Amino acid sequence: MSQLWSPAVRSLTPYVPGEQPTERLIKLNTNENPYPPAPGVAQALRDYATDHLRLYPDPASRALRQTLAETMGVGIEQTFVGNGSDEVLAFAFQAFFCHAAPLDVPDITYSFYPVYARLYGIELRKHALDDDWQVDLDALSASGERSGVILANPNAPTGHAHSLQALEALLERVTDRVVLIDEAYVDFGAESAVALVERYPNLLVTGTFSKSRSLAGLRLGYAIGAVELIDALERVKDSFNSYPVDRLASAVGIAALEDKAHFDACRNNVMATRERTVSRLEALGFSVLPSKANFVLAQHPRFEGAQLFAGLRERGILVRHFNTPALANFLRITIGTDDEMDGLVEALKALCG
Ligand code: PMP
C-alpha cells in the first residue's frame, strides 16, 4: 500500500460487483434483465451515432428529466439523473449524510452503502434484519442523533419489500434528516414511495434504468424528491462534473421510458418466471425468501452455498454467492428467461438429487 495514498483511501474496501464472464454462460449473477431494451432504443442509438455526439450534452438534462417526470407523475424540478443509481447514491451520501452522527442502515442490504460511508467518513449504525429476514423499520427509525436513514425497497439481496403504509410510518418517525429509499428493484412487484415525495420533504427516492428498463450497460439512474433535495444533489454534481449524463444516455433513456408496453411486458414476464422458479426450487427442497425483485435468495438444507455455486459454475451457470457468514448458505439467483431457469433447475436437480 503506497505511502502516497491518503488515510481514507488506505482504509477503503472497494465494492466488488458480480463477475462479467467472457465465456458464454447462463448469467444469473448481477440482476440484469434477460430481455432487450425497448425497440425505440435501437432507433435512438442510430440517430445519435451520426450528428449529435459532436455537441456537449444539456447540463440540465431537461429532455430526459421531463420524460422521467411525466412517467413518475412529478414535476421536472423534482427529478435528478446521473450515471447509474450508484452515482446518484454517491452524490446523495455527500449531500445529505455527512453529519457528525451515524447513518441508520439495515444489516444485510446493498453492499455499496458501506463503501460510500467509508469513502465519505460516515459512521454506520447497523440494524439486524428481523427473524423473517425483513428490514426492521422500528429499529431503523428509533430515535437518536443520526445523519440519515437509508434502505433499499425491495431490499437486496433478500428481495423483501415493505408496503407503502409501512414506509409512511417510518417517514412519520424520521423527520429531521433525509430518508433515502433505493428503489432499484421496485418495478418487479413492490409499491413505489415516489407517491410520498409530495408529503415528505425529507424523502429521496432513487431508481435505475439498469433492471426493469434493461439498460445496465448504459449507466443511467435517477432520484426523485423535494426541490430542496434535488438542489443539493445538483450542487454536488456541478462541483464534480456539470454534465449529468451524456447525450446518448439521455436519448436512449427517453426511448426506454416512452415504451410502456415493452416495459410492462418485460417486468410481467420476469415476475411470472420468478413465481415458477420459486415453486420449482421449493420442490427441490430449497427454502426461498419471498421476493418482489428480479432475483431470489435461496438455501438448501443439505448443501452449502459455495458448493452449489461451484457446481453450477462447472455446468455453465453463474449465480451469486456472498462470502459473508450470514449469507454463506444462500445463493442469490437472478431471474432470467424461462429457458435459462429451466437450465438452472436441471443443473440443481443433478447437484441436489
Ligand atoms: N441499488 C441497489 C439496491 C442495487 O442492487 C444496485 C445494482 N447493483 C444499484 C442500486 C445500482 O444500480 P445502477 O448503478 O446500475 O443504477
TrEMBL record:
Keyword Transferase: yes
Pathway stated in the Swiss-Prot or TrEMBL entry: Amino-acid biosynthesis; L-histidine biosynthesis; L-histidine from 5-phospho-alpha-D-ribose 1-diphosphate: step 7/9
GO MF term set: histidinol-phosphate transaminase activity
Assigned keywords, A-Z: Amino-acid biosynthesis, Aminotransferase, Histidine biosynthesis, Pyridoxal phosphate, Transferase
Residue ranges occupied by any Aminotransferase class I/classII large domain in the UniProt entry: 25-348
Reactions performed catalytically: L-histidinol phosphate + 2-oxoglutarate = 3-(imidazol-4-yl)-2-oxopropyl phosphate + L-glutamate
One Pfam family hit: Aminotran_1_2
Keyword hit for Transferase: yes
Record-listed N6-(pyridoxal phosphate)lysine modification sites: 211
InterPro entries membership: Aminotrans_II_pyridoxalP_BS, Aminotransferase_I/II_large, HisP_aminotrans, HistidinolP_aminotransfase, PyrdxlP-dep_Trfase, PyrdxlP-dep_Trfase_major, PyrdxlP-dep_Trfase_small
Domain of life: Bacteria
EC number in record: 2.6.1.9
SUPFAM superfamilies recorded: PLP-dependent transferases (SSF53383)
CC cofactor: pyridoxal 5'-phosphate
Assembly and binders: Homodimer.
HAMAP family: HisC_aminotrans_2
UniProt-listed NCBIfam families: hisC
PANTHER family for the chain: HISTIDINOL-PHOSPHATE AMINOTRANSFERASE (PTHR43643:SF3), HISTIDINOL-PHOSPHATE AMINOTRANSFERASE 2 (PTHR43643)
Protein family: Belongs to the class-II pyridoxal-phosphate-dependent aminotransferase family. Histidinol-phosphate aminotransferase subfamily.
Protein name: Histidinol-phosphate aminotransferase
Organism, scientific name: Vreelandella malpeensis
